[in-house]
Specification:
The structure holds two protein chains of two kinds.
Chain A: H1 2-34, E1 36-37, E2 47-48, H2 52-59, H3 61-93, H4 99-107, H5 114-125, H6 131-138, H7 152-179, H8 184-192, H9 197-226, H10 229-234, H11 246-257, H12 260-284
Antiparallel strand pairs in A: 1-2
Helix pairs in contact in A: 1-12, 2-12, 3-7, 3-9, 5-7, 7-9, 11-12
Chain B: H1 2-25, E1 40-45, H2 51-67, E2 71-76, H3 80-92, E3 99-103, H4 107-112, H5 120-124, H6 134-139, E4 141-142, E5 145-146, E6 149-154, E7 157-161, H7 162-167, H8 176-186, E8 194-196, H9 205-216, H10 238-254, H11 264-272, E9 276-281, H12 286-292, E10 298-301, E11 311-313, E12 316-322, H13 329-340, H14 342-352, H15 365-368, H16 373-380, E13 385-387, H17 397-412, H18 418-437
Parallel strand pairs in B: 1-2, 1-3, 8-9, 11-13
Antiparallel strand pairs in B: 3-12, 4-5, 6-12, 7-9, 7-10
Helix pairs in contact in B: 2-14, 8-10, 9-10, 17-18
Classes of the chains: A mainly alpha, B alpha/beta.
């Protein structure tokens, strides 16, 4: 029995080493740095400063704005991605000619890197030479060019639109897979009972795929919250910080300030927010329904 | 059967573990002379990576290796966006690195952390050092020590649509005020045409600082350019306010509204695609202008001056330095000297679109005609086009671009006014000064 345990433990060592080195060490280091003055410019005077980095963050109007923006960013991106994704999945569930090819076209956005998507949309949104303004002008829907990324009223909406475009495919893929597992007998039974298509959707389909919905939205919300790439590529947080979310602000602190202390503090605040979010979400949706993931 | 499997698994685990540990400690082995005999391997890294540039540098390195059969050069080209971080990581983790590309933006940081070696002792013995221009030396110098030999300089000049100006019967502007007036006349939003290729996004301080420096003119302390000769910041003067008032007008009356968030790419793209008429940029855009625009539609002119008739300009650049931990400094210098020689540097500058570092190179026909000519003309009039030293020694320079961009955008969006913005900038540099004195 003991021999068995030794064997198991020794078998785990390589994986354990890797996990410790590449997951837990950076994590602990990040926590430590949040309480230090740790600037690339002056690595010789790294020292502990207590809660200064956190105080500085909460006194910074940019941080407060980013906190607020993170809320909008996650909420609207998630809801819209989910709704469009579900619609697409329902449409793709039916057999029709060329479905495979069509699926490929629908899903390809998921295969692009977020940064690249940011770059592409940046040119499309450009008010002088961008295609979106051109189309709207030619259709006669607008008479003056709109500064999608330069007008703070529009900028946050624009980055969310790009993000929705990116994430719809993810929900479509996941929900389609779940939909295909709904047994057809259930629908047959529902038809026998005289259910309308809305009732079928509401009382059969949705309850059946609920675990997938919970798991995907929970995961996706965390990804959206953490992912700065689209914003970094599109607006870099501008104009005047009006499109910064927490993760892009964190990146900004590192890239332009070399200030790892301030960035780590923001990182920790993000972790705390996510922790609360997860606890809240799991308790409202009753964790056991979410299944194993 | 099961036993055999167990033995196999244990063996595999042992091998993987040993492999992992060996991987962690392996760096000592290859830091010495690798390979046999006296062959020395130098590791060299570039920062401003772009496919064409990498190719040019690789060609020079190959030439160097052919001339020095006992030296092998391992050339690392990380992608531009990550290059400086990669260099920092390598330096911080004591990985072997001998020759590195240091930028004006990073030199103070590297010196501060003790990563790079002063080159004066080597340069004194170098026969071609005499022809290295004073500006080039100044770019690579921190305090009184030379830390890198630039591989070419970037200097701002004006590009304008010669055809538009001719059509409107205008001359290329020579002052900021004229630039504003000319740009305003060229602007016609109905035709999606604007006078000035404004840049309010990343790098916006290129415009704001240039204007404020030009307006302050003689008041500026050229060695400590964020401050006047009286020791106040350049943002605290009435001239700074005049400059910013004009800056605001330039954006509102003569630039695309969208340009508040534009960076380098959009700014240049707007010019090449015929949306904007005047562009202030470095010579590295010349090639893309030549490729995308018809000959004769555009021309170059010197930088515009402030009200006192002066334009302050800084040369930017990157160049080759040697790490302080290098074990092969002599060989590393040999490589730096080769890359910086008049022949190699002039060819590289021509091919990539930079100003060569040797004064002798300006004799070349290539730089006497065409779009580069205005830059040489500017050098010939040092009283009008005054060279200043950018404030790279301050820890806050790296963040300065971001600070000006954000507060500048608030100003352009009418969320704040010129006085408050300048107060903020004044406080930023006053604070930098006290930090530096500590």
């Amino acid at each position: 029995m003991r021999k068995q345990r030794v064997f198991i433990l020794s078998g785990l060592i390589p994986a354990l080493l890797l996990v410790l080195a590449f997951t837990y060490y950076p994590f602990v280091k990040g926590i430590v740095m949040a309480f230090q003055e740790y600037k690339l410019f002056d690595l010789r005077s790294v020292h502990f400063v207590g809660l200064d980095n956190f105080k500085a963050a909460f006194n910074d109007p940019k941080f407060i704005m980013a906190l607020q923006n993170s809320g909008y960013w996650v909420f609207f991106s998630l809801i819209l991605q989910f709704l469009f994704g579900l619609t697409l999945a329902l449409l793709l569930k039916k057999q029709f000619r060329g479905r495979g090819v069509y699926q490929g076209f629908v899903f390809y956005s998921w295969a692009l890197s977020g940064f690249l998507i940011g770059m592409i949309w940046k040119w499309m949104f450009n008010s002088q030479i961008g295609v979106i303004n051109d189309i709207l002008l030619h259709l006669g829907l607008i008479h003056e060019r709109i500064g999608f990324l330069s007008d703070p009223k529009w900028a946050m909406i624009s980055v969310i639109i790009a993000n929705v475009w990116y994430g719809v495919a993810f929900f479509a893929i996941m929900l389609l897979a779940a939909l295909q597992s709904v047994p057809s007998e259930l629908y047959e039974a529902a038809v026998m009972d005289g259910a309308s298509s809305f009732r079928k959707l509401w009382n059969v389909t949705l309850p059946y795929i609920m675990p997938t919905i919970i798991a995907t939205t929970l995961l996706r919300a965390i990804w959206i919250f953490n992912d700065p790439t689209i914003i970094y590529g599109l607006t870099n947080g501008g104009p005047a910080g009006s499109t910064h979310i927490l993760s892009s602000l964190m990146l900004d602190k590192i890239i332009y300030g070399g200030d790892y202390g301030a960035a780590s503090a923001i990182g920790i605040i993000m972790i705390i927010i996510l922790l609360f979010y997860t606890i809240f979400f799991l308790s409202v949706t009753k964790a056991e329904k979410a299944g194993d993931f | 059967m099961i036993k055999r499997k167990k033995v196999l698994v244990s063996l595999l685990c042992a091998v993987v573990t040993v492999g992992l540990l060996a991987g962690c400690s392996g760096k000592n082995e290859n830091s010495g002379n690798s390979g046999s005999g006296d062959k020395v391997t130098l590791r060299m890294i570039e920062s401003l990576t772009s496919p064409k540039r990498t190719e040019l540098i690789q060609a020079m390195v190959t030439k160097f290796e052919a001339a020095n059969p006992n030296i092998k050069v391992e050339f690392i080209s990380p992608p531009f966006d990550q290059a400086d971080n990669k260099i920092r990581t390598m330096l911080g983790s004591d990985e072997q690195l001998d020759v590195l590309e240091v930028r004006d933006l990073t030199v103070a940081e590297f010196v501060n952390n003790g990563y790079v070696e002063p080159l004066n002792a080597y340069a004194d013995k170098w026969k071609d050092f005499a022809t290295v221009s004073a500006v080039s030396k100044s770019v690579g110098t921190v305090g009184d020590k030379l830390y890198f030999v630039p591989n070419g300089l970037y200097e701002r000049q004006m590009f304008y649509r010669a055809d538009w100006l001719k059509e409107a019967g205008l001359n290329p502007p020579t002052t900021w005020q004229e630039l504003y007036e000319t740009a305003k006349k060229l602007t016609d939003p109905a035709k999606n045409r604007f006078g000035f290729s404004f840049r309010g996004g990343a790098g916006s301080n290129g415009t704001t600082d240039a204007m404020i420096l030009a307006f302050n003119g003689d008041k500026v302390n050229l060695d400590d350019s964020m401050f006047t000769k009286d020791g106040a910041t350049i943002y605290s003067t009435p001239e700074a306010k005049a400059a910013m008032d004009l800056y605001l007008k330039l954006y509102k009356d003569a630039s695309p509204p969208d340009s508040i968030n534009w960076g380098f790419q959009e700014q240049v793209q707007a010019f090449t695609s015929g949306v904007t008429g005047i562009l202030l940029q470095d010579p590295d855009v010349i090639q893309s202008l030549q490729e995308k625009m018809a000959e004769g539609t555009w021309a170059t002119a010197p930088l515009v001056t402030g009200p006192t008739g002066k334009a302050l300009f800084a040369a930017g650049g990157a160049g080759w330095g040697i790490t302080s931990k290098s074990k092969h400094k002599e060989e590393a210098w040999k490589l730096v000297e080769f890359l910086s020689s008049p022949a190699e540097n002039t060819a590289f500058s021509k091919d990539y679109g930079l100003i060569p570092i040797h004064t002798s190179a300006t004799e070349d026909e290539f730089f006497k005609t065409g779009p580069y000519k205005t830059l040489i003309d500017m050098t010939d009039k040092p009283d009008t086009y005054v060279n200043y030293k950018p404030p790279f020694q301050y820890p806050g320079t790296g963040q300065w671009g971001q600070v000006t961009m954000e507060s500048g955008q608030s100003l352009l969006l009418n969320k704040s006014n010129v006085d408050d913005t300048l107060k903020k900038w004044d406080a930023y540099w006053a604070d930098q000064k006290t930090k530096l004195k500590k």
